[in-house]
């Protein structure tokens, strides 16, 4: 745990899941810059300058929400891990009275009706930023304080254009410790111009749907739904395409998990190929699980069985209850390159599998997943590969 010193107190903050070996902090220079700006604003204009209903979009690990808990913010996030980190950090640092007005919302839930202060940690996904700004814009008014924050590597001309197109005139601050602020003045008369191909009547460019290409097995030509922020939301990524061409065949009432499901195309393929399968779709992204459910419903009949779980890998799955786990693991979390996410997925899969159950993984060849799987399962077979990807199979022996 590290201590984050702010005008709202010294806060002991951690990421989630908490790991004593993890040296990464639960905040960065952009969080510090944003909170310092709010402090200076309150000193100049009085506490009312940051009063009213506050929404915090994209808070990485709850640092902003925890610091500003006395203002009763509504945190809006796509990440289950962020929500869990925020809950833990709030409980560790704030009293019950201070937590009374705090709300933890997902990007799939309805935001507050009126927003007087909007704080935005610029997300990795420009599409997610666009989607959420479009959802929030009708809740803003001419006097809403809108401040964004990010590291200089996260804020681009396209980022500023989104703020300006959807909310109003936008400018940036000088960079401090490689962080920058974004200041936007809401224009109530502004009508955001939708992207080409979007539905203007829907008021948003998301979700997007496309048909899969031919020659990928049972999913050839089938529709896929993608909410904003999903990896490769406008096309099928080449790793998943390779995986779909080499999925294991199963028959009968087996229980299959699409682990880190994204838009759910892999788990849906398993369900289409075997109508008796019970498929569990799980991801830490609320947007992903919503996408997976929409993809599954569009491609299966009313009798198809599935569960849709937002969580930390397979933490919520009963031990020894699964026959097959299908996994295309990410190798980053909130911009940090790490193998901790894939390792948690692999260890969770081993716990969830029945004896004789199998974990199938697709990954970039250079990541060396076979070494980790052999260490964990005692075995690992390369099913197939090409110059870029491998499909691996590990069996739980006991």
Characterization of this structure:
With 398 residues, this protein is an alpha/beta fold. 28% of the residues lie in helices and 26% in strands. The chain contains eleven helices and 20 strands. The strands form five sheets. A seven-stranded mixed β-sheet has the order 5-4-3-6-7-9-8, sandwiched between helices. α10 runs parallel beside α11 (369-377). The model is unreliable at 192-203 and 333-337 (pLDDT under 50).
Morphology call: globular
Please report which band the strand proportion falls in: under 5%, 5-15%, 15-25%, 25-35%, 35-45% or over 45%.
Answer: 25-35%
Main sheet?
7 strands, mixed
State the end-to-end distance. 37 Å
Give the count of helical stretches: 11
Proportion in helices: 25-40%
Mean pLDDT across the residues is: 92
Which stretches are low in confidence, meaning pLDDT under 50 for 5 or more residues running?
192-203, 333-337
Q: How many E-type strands?
A: 20
Helix/strand class: alpha/beta
Q: Strand arrangement, largest sheet?
A: 5-4-3-6-7-9-8
What value does the Rg take, in angstroms?
A: 22 Å
Produce a short descriptive summary.
With 398 residues, this protein is α/β, with parallel strands linked by helices. Helices cover 28% and strands 26% of the residues. It contains 11 helices and 20 strands.
Name its key features:
seven-stranded mixed sheet; 11 helices; globular; 20 strands; alpha/beta
